[in-house]
Amino acid sequence: MRGRLIALLFWAAILAAGAEPLRIAVVQMAIGPTLEVNRNRILERLSEAEAGGARVAVFPEAALTDPGGKPNPAVAAAVDAIRAAARQHGLYVIFGGWSWSERWAKAANWAKVIDPEGVELLHYDKLHDVREAPNPAVFSIDGVPAAAIICADRWLRAVEELPIQQGARLSFELSNNYDSEWVPELEWYWYVPRALRNNVYVFFVNTANRFPGRPEPGADPRPRHGHSAVIGPDGAILAAESGDMETILYVDVDPDRATRGGALERRAHPLLGRFWEEGLTLLRRPRAPEGVFAPLDCPQTELSVGVAQTGNGGWAQLEKLLEARTERVDLLAVAAAPPSPDAAAALARGRQMTLVYLDDSYAFVVGPDGKLLARHRGLAEGGVDPKTMWVRVKGVPAFVTVGRDALWNEVAELAAFAGARLHLHLTNERAPNRAAQLRRRQVGAALSSFFTLTVMAAPASSAIWEDLAGAEETRAAVRGEPRPDTGAARIDSPFSANLAAEAGAGAELLVVRRTIPGPNPYAQRRAGRVQPAMESWYRSGARLLCPLLELKRE
């Protein structure tokens, strides 16, 4: 009785505020051994979702799998059965499938959105399977704009965020993640930053197992990790499953809370706004990229990078930390200001290192000869000049970001596309509790996963992230092959950057040595390769952020 009263009060408060609540059922489902099994599981869950009061039922990637992967008219019949069930139960149904595609003449992943009348609102072919496929369109759920992402397409910014720039307030990711993709120390590291930087609801809907830690007989032998979750526009976890078994999560969302404030702020920026506007234009009027794109050159070299966390000791504490360090450090970052520019120059010159320090919202880079190389104000902190963010350390192209730039991670992606191999981020933001420390890790993982070595200096929880062989690590995990040796790490994460080192709350000096293997292959291996229709967008964005790049004509 008390629970019902609380529920009534909740709905009364929502209705009094003028918002239309939306109940969404997140179905964490195991993929079975046959098309018929998978169809029946979806139909059963739709009945349960209606009984649970849902308006929307969301299923994971490949929920409707036809294991044969050959032309099969039963797939269309199964889709028709789901459409009929949507009408019967009065539900929006979002689900993934894997089957033979007549259009693309191969088996591929896809997703569909069906409305409560049984009408198909969206068909979306996964870009990682079909590179010629169009970008998924925005669809509407009772007037609320929404978007869908299929698993690895999360790495394509056009798929992940252009629909949000077009108005989507609900972002549904349908995934079929292996158990190796769940990193307990990072939890929902792709999804919390997406919600935070866009201020939208993010739904992570993943596959499950029928038996703990292992799939059922006859199905794909690789276990899934489950852990479906719903993240609010402020990054808070609204609902989450802690395990890998089948279940349904119910969550009531208020679409008015999804303001898209962060997305709109980035679009309004004098520099980055041009990037976002061009992406939206390109969706309407595609064009082939011009000329030949040549990223910045980068030597293969050993690089020793460090971050000094001074606690309450300031610059004097930094000097004490360095006194105990005899070996050379090529680069040192510190989120503290020196007593004077001369003091910073003297320290860099005396140690023969590149020194990066933070003073207010500006990052300063001092070379080993004591000369000032850069003075950069973060783009999210009011900066508009991209030229000031670029330096080289032992010939390695590096860029600097500050403060809230950590959430504007299109900056990191475009810099990597331009050829950067070293990322230096400084912030005065503190992490006062475990929740804040976890969020910093999650933001750091998303920020650092562009084949770079990333140094993050802060008053506490400073860190060094490494993703120099990110593509090789992911490939090994997918194929079940031995992981490449990328050096010691505090947290190994084969589908994102590895946390190489992390400081606690007090004064500490972290140093990591890695081999920079040469130029950053990000432009060739990910963005342009997987979604060639958007390559000109990435190229122009990289040139916008890195004016050193030149357009080379063929």
Give a quick summary of the entry.
The protein is of the alpha/beta class and 554 residues long. 29% of the residues lie in helices and 25% in strands.
What characteristics describe this protein?
554 residues, alpha/beta, Nitrilase/N-carbamoyl-D-aminoacid amidohydrolase, 2 domains, 7-stranded mixed β-sheet, 25 strands, elongated, disordered N terminus
Unreliable stretches (pLDDT < 50, length at least 5) are 1-18
Task: Classify the helix fraction into a percent range.
Answer: 25-40%
Q: What is the overall silhouette?
A: elongated
CATH architecture of the largest domain: 4-Layer Sandwich
What's the count of strands? 25
Instruction: Give the end-to-end Cα distance, rounded to a whole number of Å.
Output: 74 Å
Number of helices: 15
Which fold name fills CATH's third level, the topology of the largest domain? Nitrilase/N-carbamoyl-D-aminoacid amidohydrolase
Radius of gyration: 24 Å
β-strand amount: 25-35%
Instruction: Give the mean pLDDT.
Output: 93
Largest sheet: 7 strands, mixed
| CATH structural class of the largest domain | Alpha Beta
Output the CATH homologous superfamily of the largest domain: Carbon-nitrogen hydrolase
Backbone structural class: alpha/beta
Number of domains: 2
Characterization of the model:
There is one protein chain. By secondary structure, the chain is of the alpha/beta class. It folds into two domains: 20-266, Carbon-nitrogen hydrolase (Nitrilase/N-carbamoyl-D-aminoacid amidohydrolase, 4-Layer Sandwich), CATH 3.60.110; 301-523, Carbon-nitrogen hydrolase (Nitrilase/N-carbamoyl-D-aminoacid amidohydrolase), CATH 3.60.110.10. 29% of the residues lie in helices and 25% in strands. It is built from 15 helices and 25 strands. It has helices spanning 2-16, 35-51, 73-89, 157-160, 162-165, 191-198, 261-268, 272-284, 314-323, 341-351, 410-418, 434-447, 470-479, 522-530, 535-545, and strands at 22-28, 56-58, 64-65, 92-101, 106-114, 120-125, 139-141, 144-150, 170-174, 201-205, 229-231, 237-240, 247-253, 301-309, 331-334, 354-359, 362-366, 372-377, 390-393, 396-402, 422-426, 453-457, 463-466, 498-502, 508-516. Strands 1, 2, 3, 4, 5, 6 and 13 form a seven-stranded mixed beta sheet that branches. A six-stranded mixed beta sheet has the order 7-8-9-10-11-12, covered by helices on one side. Residues 1-18 have low confidence and may be disordered.
